[in-house]
Amino acid sequence: MTIREEIEQLKKEKNAVILAHYYVRPEVQEIADYVGDSFYLSKVAVGLKEKTIVFCGVSFMGESAKILNPEKTVLMPDMAADCPMAHMASAETIEKIRSEYDDLAVVCYINSTAELKRHSDVCVTSSNAVKIVKALPNKNIFFIPDRNLAHYIAGLVPEKNFIYNEGFCIVHEYMEVEEIQEAKAAHPEAEVLSHPECPAKVLELSDFVGSTSEIIAQAGKSDAKEFIICTESGVLYELQKRNPEKKFYFTETTPICRNMKKVTLEKVLHVLKTGENEVFVDDKLREESKKPLERMLELAK
Ligand code: 13P
Ligand code: SF4
Q1: 182: helix, coil or strand?
Q2: Could you tell me if 164 and 130 are in contact, meaning their C-beta atoms sit under 8 angstroms apart?
Q3: Given 36, 58, 101, 219, which residue has the most CB atoms within 10 angstroms?
Q4: Where are the domains of the chain?
Q5: Mutate to test the pocket of ligand 1, among 131, 211, 238, 261 (most ligand atoms within 8 A of CB)
Q6: Which numbered ligand comes closest to the C-alpha of 88?
Q7: What is the tens place of the pLDDT at every residue in 80-116?
Q8: CATH number, domain 3-81+260-281
Q9: Taking 90 as the threshold, does the pLDDT of residue 47 lie above it?
Q10: CA–CA separation, 228 vs 243, rounded Å?
Q11: Beta strands 104-109 and 122-124: pairing type?
């Protein structure tokens, strides 16, 4: 039996479903039942009929799936696949800002630990942040952990007063403006599609800014034949699958999230076989961190 056949068989035997983010390896996306951006995956995780969820992504994704579905078994192919940005804020800073501002909402990007979510009022993803921040009654917004996404959203919701936190994604933060300019010079007809985790200087060079699934949708809708993609290169699999006639380029230094790439087919097979790497969140933390996640799902409707 091939590894894919073994995974298929075990999925049935164990009543399991596989969720994958667009940044994981192509062969992992290929065997997944659902592939998408962070918002899609958190919505899909709610209401699945299978008993076990194998989450092919980084820790905060599996953790959020468990928080929203405590009755399910959530397995991570690699427990060490963590997002550094998820830790780039602190409960102390949140409480300090709370004491300094009235009429404040702590808005927590879903790329964060459950501990940070528990201290927040609402979660957002890059595809629903504008809608949710606009819908909040509060004037002051402390946006954690990502400062780049915060600045981007602040530009689109000027009626709010943003307070920034010094977090960033180690992949998007280091996208080089010179390399994007070189790619533009080499492909002058190409449309530049970027993720809002990129710094403002990258977004200024872009024709379109959106989450991974919004970038993929834009590439499909656009009349352009060539695209420069400023986000993690795992999106190439879906971009090519949907648009075989179009061309996609990345910067010379290919943006790669080493944590997302830790998820391999062998590790998916291993956790399905053994039930290892189960995600546990203690009851109190789960109850408290569930509130901002559920508020996100409600406000994003
Ligand atoms: P989205 O897929 O929601 O755009 O998130 C990007 C990301 O960095 C996930 O880690
Ligand atoms: Fe975290 Fe960036 Fe990797 Fe996404 S791409 S998991 S934000 S390090």
Answers
A1: helix
A2: no
A3: 58
A4: 3-81+260-281, 85-168+287-299, 177-249
A5: 211
A6: 2
A7: 999 999 999 999 999 999 999 999 999 999 999 999 9
A8: 3.40.50.10800
A9: no
A10: 14
A11: parallel
Question: What are residue 279's phi and psi, to 5 degrees?
Answer: -85, 130
Helices 59-68 & 283-299 angle (0-180, nearest 10): 90
Residue with structure tokens 């970027």? 194
Question: Could you give the CA distance from residue 207 to residue 220 in angstroms, rounded to a whole number?
Answer: 14
Q: Which fold has domain 85-168+287-299?
A: Rossmann fold (3.40.50)
Pocket of ligand 1 (CB under 6 A): 22, 37-39, 83, 111, 125-127, 169, 195, 197, 211-212
For 229-280, the pLDDT digits (tens) are 999 999 999 999 999 999 999 999 999 999 999 999 999 999 999 999 999 9
Confirm whether 3-81+260-281 and 85-168+287-299 share one CATH topology: yes
Residues 6+ apart with CB under 8 A from 123: 107, 108, 109, 110, 112, 117, 292, 293, 295, 296
CA distance 176 to 270: 38
Distance 45 CA to ligand 2 centre (A): 20
Give the angle subtended at the CA of 67 by the CAs of 63 and 73, to the nearest 5°. 75
| Cβ partners under 8 Å of residue 227, min gap 6 | 190, 191, 192, 193, 219, 239, 246, 247, 248, 249
Catalogue the E-assigned strands of the chain: 16-21, 34-36, 52-56, 73-75, 104-109, 122-124, 140-144, 161-164, 191-194, 208-209, 226-230, 247-249
Q: Is the CB of 83 under 6 A from ligand 2?
A: yes
Alpha-carbon gap, residue 144 to 168, rounded angstroms: 10
Task: Tell me how far apart the alpha carbons of residues 122 and 106 are, in angstroms, rounded to a whole number.
Answer: 7
User: Which position has the token pair 């993929």?
Assistant: 216
pLDDT at res. 127: 96
| Residues comprising the chain, all counted | 301
